[in-house]
Amino acid sequence: MTTAAGVATLESRFATALPELAVAWQAADCPAPRLTVLNEPLAAELGLDPEQLRTDDGVGLLTGTRLPPGANPVAQAYAGHQFGGFTRLGDGRALLLGEVSDRQGRLRDVHLKGSGRTPFARGGDGLAALGPMLREYVVSEAMHALGIPTTRSLAVVATGRDVHRETMLPGAVLTRVASSHLRVGSFQLVQAAGEVDLLRRLADHAIQRHHPAAAADAQPYLAFYRAVVAAQADLVARWMSVGFVHGVMNTDNMTISGETIDYGPCAFLEAFDPATVFSSIDQGGRYAYANQPAAAEWNLARFGEALLPLLDEDPDRAVDLASAALGSFRPAYDDARSRALRAKLGLTGHASAPDALADTLLDLLERSHVDHTSFWRHLATAARGDSGPVRALFLDLEAFDAWLAGWRALGPDPDAMDRVNPLYLPRNHLVEEALAAATEDDLAPLEALLDAVRRPFDERPGLERFAAPAPADFGRYRTFCGT
To answer: Active-site residue 252, yes or no?
Structure first.
């Protein structure tokens, strides 16, 4: 069944199953909505007609202002540890419009950001600026193309309403698609309230939606916890392999599905430095690049605490079970990280030897401030016999040459390397260039960047600037959450 805008009827499974965590709400009006960018491949994947989404009714759906009959948009309630401090939160500027089944029968959330104040706004204006919403669009598309689990961006609509931040900026609404928006903070809120029956219903809902195999286990909630731990270990290892720095790994930004969520102060490494922080608000480096595995493990410990009432009636036994399950994170992460590095080095057929090689290499990259992304493609060129480009990146040539000889002796596969090492990422200077132009109604740089990052592994003539590091005068990069 479709509406005049060609949109499948929005279901309300979350709102129906968990009304205690959903506040019925409506999106704010948009004075002069204008579709800025539409993700046509994703629209088709969801069974939506891109041309109909470009109509007034379609733009109304994408802003939450014209919804199908029976739609029940809600603001979701959750909590979270934000930079270590526990806070009751919720969708302060967002709405879950509902769920749709895509062409493969998978249930997907349709969710808005920047749709106006809700009861969870906590003094915020509930709005979003065009630049940060386009950042999420670009980076989430890049992550998807890299094969990293992520929420997706369906569209960005300029609202015609200015948003006051440090200056007046054009406002926008992002339409986001996810397997769901259940997060660690959802469970923390319920556990903090002492609502064990609701906690069980929430866990059952999450198991059914994301980890159905856990339902058949003799200890379904423990199996559920283990599944989330495994999903997050794999996710963070994927982040690390491409130099992605999330920037705000609070527990409300850790999904139960294992998808990357919230592209506020995020960016990709330029020069390899484990201490890299891009977020303007992360003064202590809590979520620095190298700290991301530990931050994920800490978040998962909080998730385990929230699940304790479901794991065992004996509190001590519940703690023991949760601790053992959490203990699987580090080995799972280390294994995933090791496999990713072997693939990047073109040595997937080897076992332990590349691990020591990788450790030495990362130290060399840091000492010489080597660009993380371009290095791996130059290294593949060295595997083909031309080591000049990669040697030019290093200060300590003697140490690198010794490493290079040991690596070459293992017979790396350069074609396999090119299949996993991206050439095109949303480099920070290119993102800023595209966003600045878009706020002046010039979408050409944005479209060119999207074209590059949607095929990150395929070298194409004319895209050389998208593979090049930032110019020397770009300076130290800082990102902002956009609220």
So the answer is: yes
CB 432 within 8 A of CB 139: no
The residue annotated as part of the active site, out of 252, 282, 371, 418, is 252
Q: Which residue has the tokens 């290079």?
A: 404
Domain coordinates in residue numbering, the chain? 13-178, 347-412
pLDDT for position 3: 47
Instruction: Please list, in sequence order, all residues whose beta carbon lies within 8 angstroms of the beta carbon of residue 229, skipping any fewer than 6 positions away.
Output: 300, 325, 326, 328, 329, 332
pLDDT digits (tens, 9 = 90+) for 352-367: 667 889 999 999 999 9
**Whether the Cβ atoms of residue 135 and residue 176 lie closer than 8 Å to each other:** no
371: left (phi over 0), alpha (psi -120 to 50) or beta: beta
Helix axes 130-145, 428-438, angle to 10 degrees: 140
pLDDT in tens, 387-407: 999 999 999 999 999 999 999
Q: Six-digit token pair at 94?
A: 């967002």
Q: Is 167 exposed, middle or buried (0-12, 13-18, 19+ CB in 10 A)?
A: exposed
